[in-house]
Amino acid sequence: MRKYNIPIFIPHEGCGHDCVFCNQRKITGIQSSVSPDKAKEEIAQYLSTIKSEDCQIEIAYFGGSFTGLDMELQREFLEAASGFKDERIIGIRMSTRPDYINKEILEQCVEFGVKTIELGVQSASNRVLELNRRGHVFEDVIRAAEMIKSFGIELGLQMMLGMYGSDPETDIETCRKIIELEPKCTRIYPTLVLSGTALESLYIRGEYIPYTLETAVSTAKRCLLMFRKAGVEVIRIGLYPGEDLRSEGNIVAGPFHSAFGELVENAVYKDKIEEEIIQKRLRDCDYEIIAPSSETSKIIGQKKCNKEYFFKKYGVRIKVKNRLG
Known about the structure:
CATH superfamily of the largest domain: Aldolase class I
Oligomer: single chain
Shape: globular
CATH topology of the largest domain: TIM Barrel
Protein name: Radical SAM domain protein
Organism: Monoglobus pectinilyticus
Strand content: 15-25%
Keywords: 4Fe-4S, Iron, Iron-sulfur, Metal-binding, S-adenosyl-L-methionine
GO molecular function, one term: 4 iron, 4 sulfur cluster binding
GO cellular component, one term: cytoplasm
């Protein structure tokens, strides 16, 4: 059964903090605020485009810190989403900060059928959180995660790679600590230097050096494999490459790639295939891999990079035979 999100972006609404890396309007590609009435219009429009009856739909409030909104405004947005009588809609999801969670907020979320709450963890290092002006500590994440699960709401946790003051091993430790909190799902975002942020000033002064694309992909790959081994679903790797984010001058520096997640999946397959080639001592031959058609591009790699790598290094010609599934 196919799953759909109806994304409603409320950029920076509800958030009283100004993290060094943050420019929500550029991240989401949304330049104006959304009212509950506008949210209803957007939901109705999205529903009209989803023709399949054999699907599950979540209405998702993203882009800001939803639970930092005034309680009455939260209620109006929740009412806007819960008012649709489409049996394909299985619930509401939202993203917010870990220090904007309490009993009253969660009771209201349950009342309106909130299915998932995603917390922006970003890092498990209190030093990194402080350097990036997050305004909370990791203990706030632990408290909020436990509360969310105690109300029967599914927990999602988001992490960032290469934050100011972080490094790959610190990021991997964040991944480990996220796994310990047993979330249902997670997202992995590389840190980008966006124009108009404090991080841009740090970058210009030489106080912040962003990850290279290679380092970001390698670190994300390690996290992805750890999450998969722990049974945590990774629902996104990399920022959504919206039109505003890709506009000239918005990304000052950092490991941006419009198909970042695909690069990470390419790297996972590359390691796996190379291990098999070495174990089987393959040289100068064809090597057939049976996989679903949805995995073909991941195996072959962006611009056939994996295929070319194995041919140049081992003389092995990778061929993918598709199977159903």
